């Protein structure tokens, strides 16, 4: 039988570094920041699709930072926060998945359509490949965080 006493559902302070869904904040910072830096360091030729990738990486990086500080400062103790946590990370998964697919497609088209063997093109192409890998890893980390947050939300 469930107890009616108030129990912290979400961790606060430095306990977020010891709970399973919340340790993924660190990986989200790393992979999201790498996507942002790698895409920003390449030449943006198809502006619109790569603009979406930049928007997603910057938006998710800033929102994850805000989310992290809310958890760190303990502002997440209302009963609505577990569902908000699942909702935010689900939106981040959908955004990053769409950005990853767009980035992979643009990189594939760029690599297959061009037979330029100069050093500058190869450098940009390798940065794009690294950005695709980091974007897919960021999608995976956000997905795992979403699943674990949903399990925590169901238990609360």
UniProtKB/TrEMBL annotation:
Claim: Thylakoid is one of the keywords in the record: no
Domain MARVEL, chain residue ranges per copy: 16-154
Domain of life: Eukaryota
GO annotation, biological process: myelination
Annotated TM spans: 23-44, 50-74, 86-109, 129-151
Annotated membrane topology: Multi-pass membrane protein
Keyword flag Membrane: yes
Alphabetized UniProt keyword annotations: Lipoprotein, Membrane, Transmembrane, Transmembrane helix
Main location per the UniProt record: membrane
Subcellular localization: Membrane
PANTHER family registered for this protein in UniProt: MARVEL-CONTAINING POTENTIAL LIPID RAFT-ASSOCIATED PROTEIN, MYELIN AND LYMPHOCYTE PROTEIN
Name by which UniProt lists this protein: Myelin and lymphocyte protein
